[in-house]
Specification:
alpha/beta, binds zinc ion, Polysacc_deacetylase_ArnD, Glyco_hydro/deAcase_b/a-brl
Length: 311
């Protein structure tokens, strides 16, 4: 039971909102069973080591060096413990000025700017070698995954669909307590363009209300299931208090990657999607999936940054 999201490079297909300009947007076709549903430099410093340092007071130098050394040792040990090929890179500090997020070209709906609708985008404008990890649905609730991401200090955002998380909100509360932002992925994970405005509003606002109740906060970000939406989706989302509708540039599975673009590589600011799935859904665990993801991004010289720091 897993969703297969494919890039279709031949043209747009059903589900995309009215596409302005009609250029070669790579539409996403969803073949679904359940989908359980401030610097300008592009360098990223090695985790807890190497790279330029802020000079500490001379008297603290010994302690500072010792602490950095210990931090580095700890990260190296964590990377070994979780079977990574390399220590993940440390992202730059959050930007002083957040970038302006606009709808990706060709992903706008009619009325996008006039009605100030939440933008749909697949990457964050940045020149730094960072990517953003987003994890969807919520079927698999693996305690080892929480430990792994915490040990390795990897930020990510979770887009939750109520029908999959309602049997264990506690798991996601633990995730939230570890610094993860929880976002809206509808109540029941429907194909939204097929629903009326009112039905879409129920799916999105209903999830906002549940998240406020269960997690204390209504999200600012919403992701339409399968990446499919229309004008009503974004109008409904806006009426529910949603500011952003991030989708994704790449999707990572436990055994392969899928890129939206033909060039098949990472770009600065790309949003990467994966899913909370386990052995029942694919041939591996969440930890296996994260190993594949982290090994690839580190090998390509990218760090994983926190999406909310840029929104
Ligand atoms: Zn989903």
């Amino acid at each position: 039971m897993r969703a297969v999201v494919q890039n279709d490079k031949r043209g747009a297909l059903g589900g995309w909102a009215a596409v302005r300009g009609g250029l070669a947007v790579l539409a996403v076709a969803a073949v679904v069973s359940a989908c359980a549903g401030p610097g300008e430099d592009t360098e990223v410093r090695p985790a807890q080591g190497g790279g330029p340092l802020k000079a500490p007071p001379a008297a603290a130098l010994d302690n500072y060096a010792a602490r950095r050394h210990a931090d580095h040792d700890m990260m190296a040990a964590a990377a070994r413990r979780w079977g990574l090929a390399q220590v993940p890179l440390t992202p730059p500090p959050p930007p002083e000025h957040k970038p302006e997020i606009t709808a990706r070209n060709g992903f706008e709906v009619t009325g996008q700017e006039e009605e100030d609708l939440p933008p749909v985008f697949t990457s964050i404008p940045t020149r730094q070698k960072i990517v953003f990890l987003t994890i969807d649905d919520g079927a698999e609730k693996d305690p080892a995954f929480l430990r792994m991401m915490s040990d390795l200090k990897i930020p990510y955002s979770a887009f939750l669909s109520n029908y999959l998380v309602k049997d264990d909100y506690g798991y996601f509360r633990r995730m939230q307590s570890l610094g993860v932002t929880l976002d809206n992925h509808t109540l029941t994970h429907p194909y939204l363009p097929r629903l009326s405005y009112e039905e879409q509003k129920h799916e999105i606002c209903g999830m906002q209300a549940i998240m406020k109740k269960q997690f204390g906060k209504a999200p600012a970000a919403f992701r339409p299931p399968y990446g499919n939406y229309n004008g009503d989706t974004l109008r409904a989302a806006k009426s529910c208090g949603i500011k952003y509708a991030p989708i994704w540039a790449e999707e990572v599975f436990v055994d392969h990657w899928e890129y939206r673009e033909g060039e098949q590589n990472l770009h600065p600011g790309d949003i990467v999607l994966t899913h909370f799935r386990g052995r029942e859904d694919w041939h591996g665990t969440m930890a296996d999936d994260m190993r594949r993801f982290l090994n690839e991004v580190t090998r390509e010289g990218y760090a994983v940054a926190r999406l909310e720091d840029y929104l």
